[in-house]
Amino acid sequence: MKAGTDLGNQAKAFMDRGELVPDSVTNEMIKDRLTHDDAANGFLLDGYPRNVAQAEVLRTFLVERDTPLQAALELSIAPDEIIKRLSSRRTCRACGASAAAGATSCSSCNETDLYQREDDKEEVVARRLEVYQEQTAPIIAFYRSEGLLITIPAVGTVAEITEHAIAALGQLS
């Protein structure tokens, strides 16, 4: 969206109205992004696909390009821990960076004006988890049936979770 492309502008219009971006727009944005040179030797998608229909579009696109998906990484965490982490997260008003729970200033720009985003409030996070269970959780079964699912625990520090992910993905042939 930052680049001001037609697809990005379409997505922004939906988001500005508080609506979900339709799969057709999201899928095309992902397809376009994966054709860039920096994705030629691999890529990591975060937050996409969000439903089985998107996963099927991604699979077809990658197979047509002779670059089938190698793995889907699931970060496993208890719902109460998700609520705790997200509802304690703060955002820097100056630069938009996320601040760790308990932080008094932004680690990116040192500003002290931190606030809680509306979508990080406990009741909103709980609702997001309900939506996840309804719409996104079926992707786990989809990728498990494809033999692509790798599950790692999302406990510990960001560095520790990253190490677990790299180790798990490093096992791919």
* Uncertain spans: none
The name of the CATH superfamily of the largest domain reads P-loop containing nucleotide triphosphate hydrolases
Order of helices and strands: HHHEHEEEHHEH
Structural class: mainly alpha
Q: Percentage of helical residues?
A: 40-55%
Beta fraction: 5-15%
Give me some keywords for this one.
P-loop_NTPase; nucleotide-binding; Adenylat_kinase_CS; two-stranded parallel sheet; 173 residues; Adenylat/UMP-CMP_kin; 5 strands; globular; Rossmann fold; transferase; 3-stranded antiparallel β-sheet; single chain; 10% strand; mainly alpha; 47% helix
Description:
With 173 residues, this protein is mainly alpha-helical. The protein has two domains: 1-69, no CATH class; 80-154, P-loop containing nucleotide triphosphate hydrolases (Rossmann fold), CATH 3.40.50.300. It has seven helices and five strands; from the N terminus they run αααβαβββααβα. The protein has helices spanning 6-16, 23-34, 52-64, 79-88, 122-136, 138-145, 158-170, and strands at 72-76, 90-92, 98-99, 114-115, 149-153. The longest helix has 15 residues, at 122-136. The chain is globular and about 50 Å long.
Task: Describe what is shown at a glance.
The protein has 173 residues and is mostly helical. The protein contains 7 helices and 5 strands. The model has no long low-confidence stretch (mean pLDDT 91).
Ordered list of secondary-structure elements with their pairings:
Layout: H1 6-16, H2 23-34, H3 52-64, E1 72-76, H4 79-88, E2 90-92, E3 98-99, E4 114-115, H5 122-136, H6 138-145, E5 149-153, H7 158-170
Parallel strand pairs: 1-5
Antiparallel strand pairs: 2-3, 2-4
